[in-house]
């Protein structure tokens, strides 16, 4: 009976609301047509709309991208029309080089693309000024096909040089200044290339005088470049903290930094180490614990990660963010909703980083305990602090992410346990095995319920 009364009452309010809107539409003329949006609704109707309205805040799946390249500033150092090989100050040694020096810029590019330049260096070394010119022309030419052809010629001449010369020959590679000149010429700010004050190059922008947001994944060539760069870093234990600190300062957006973490190659040991350490650095940065030193020991890293998880409680972060903005008014419901969305968006990204930081190559008994502690902390401090609301889908998205993360941790722990502990015939571990099995199926059941409700 009570349900029927509530149902008919809702129908009555909805009908009255519809009549008010229609009456406003009929009374409005062309100049006051905008008043039909419900400005003169009764307090009862306003309360009804406020109670059942859906919050439009969402957590995006794709990072927003960083504005690095200013296309309006592209070509301020050189363009495909004024990048003349004759300005590179080299002495011609054969007929083809003499032909290049007597040709215009357009004719020079034509000779390169059609293979005339390659024919001149079958038995002799190509001079470095020509290679540098090819590198710069490749970076600025507007025709993609022409740029690709120039890159092919550059690689071909480099390989020929290495095959002709002796074993002590080092192929030409662009210097930091050459690469910086190309990036600045594409429109990137010089300070964006070197964000850390203590890691500045010995030159400035005066010395060297695309896709805008870089939101898509890098091609395989860039992945191979990352691998080569990581594998050729000397004194790795000393340089990796500096590398992680430098990368963490490349952006102020947490989602963009997560994307940088995921760009690191996961199929080599150094790449996985960078992903773990860099994730911890970024988590500390956005939890305002930037001065926390990241330990080298994996057990201490997991302990630090557990400490970070305790600080990721939504209500705690919301309180902290309010304190940081205490000079502003937060009585408005819209401002409060926007602030809460920022907190849940941050937690969503931090959970991805926690997943990266908790990935271990080898899991021993001590680290298995750390993984279980992470699951408990996640359940208590993050998932347990989320109050789901049908109007605020971003809360459910973060809660679902915690389930997936717990499931992944327990699944990994369970598989390692089955492969290493059970075959080793340690009967005193049997109860630990049963406990892990119970947690595993508990997470599986909860995930099933999440999908069933969705």
In short:
The chain is mainly α. The chain has 20 helices and no strands.
3D architecture notes:
The chain is mainly alpha-helical and 454 residues long. The two termini are 30 Å apart. It folds into 3 domains: 2-29 and 38-52, no CATH class; 71-208, no CATH class; 222-453, no CATH class. α14 (269-286) runs parallel beside α15 and α15 (298-310) packs parallel to α18 (365-382). It has 20 helices and no strands. The longest helix is centred in the C-terminal third of the chain and has 29 residues, at 393-421. It has helices at residues 2-27, 43-52, 95-101, 105-113, 116-119, 128-140, 144-164, 176-186, 190-193, 205-208, 220-231, 236-248, 254-263, 269-286, 298-310, 314-324, 333-357, 365-382, 393-421, 430-453.
How many helices? Answer: 20
Terminal residue distance:
30 Å
Radius of gyration: 31 Å
The main sheet comes to: none
Please indicate the percent range of residues in DSSP E strands (runs of 2 or more).
under 5%
Question: What is the element string, with H for helices and E for strands?
Answer: HHHHHHHHHHHHHHHHHHHH
Low-confidence stretches: 1-8, 29-38, 447-454
The helix content, as a percent range, equals: 55-70%
Task: Supply the number of structural domains.
Answer: 3
Could you tell me the number of beta strands?
A: 0
Q: What do the pLDDT scores average to?
A: 73
Choose one word for the global shape. extended
